[in-house]
Amino acid sequence: MEQVAQRTWWKRNQAWVIAVTIGGGMLLSLVLILGFVFNMMKSSDAYQMALRAARVHPAVTAALGTPIEPGFLFSGNIKVSGPSGYADIAIPLNGPNGSGTVYCVAEKSTGVWSMHQLVFEDSKSGQRTDLLVPQGNRSDTSPH
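Given the sequence above, the corresponding structure tokens read:
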């Protein structure tokens, strides 16, 4: 009788181990890169200005309550080159009473950021509020 040599665990699972190791490494790299990019964008002046303005605006605090926290994922783009730049971002916001999104369009010139648009949209009602209009002259618009 011929005896069949049994294959070792490594020989039986080598392809799976290599595939999982490579796939896991690629996934980890992607997560680290995305985390780095999101961190850089969240630390930008335009993002921080929009978040600060939304957190103290009466319409936003009335809709969401306090504390207001930004969501992890946000969309848009920020491009800065020395003393100039541009930002067009949408930041999801969450509070104890609801959620919404603040939309910001800003430009950096001679090292100073200027907000061109800053609008809050309440997720529940769809109501949009221009956060740049002085609070005595509020201009709320109905959902579209």
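The chain is about 35% helix and 35% strand. Try to locate this feature in the token string yourself.
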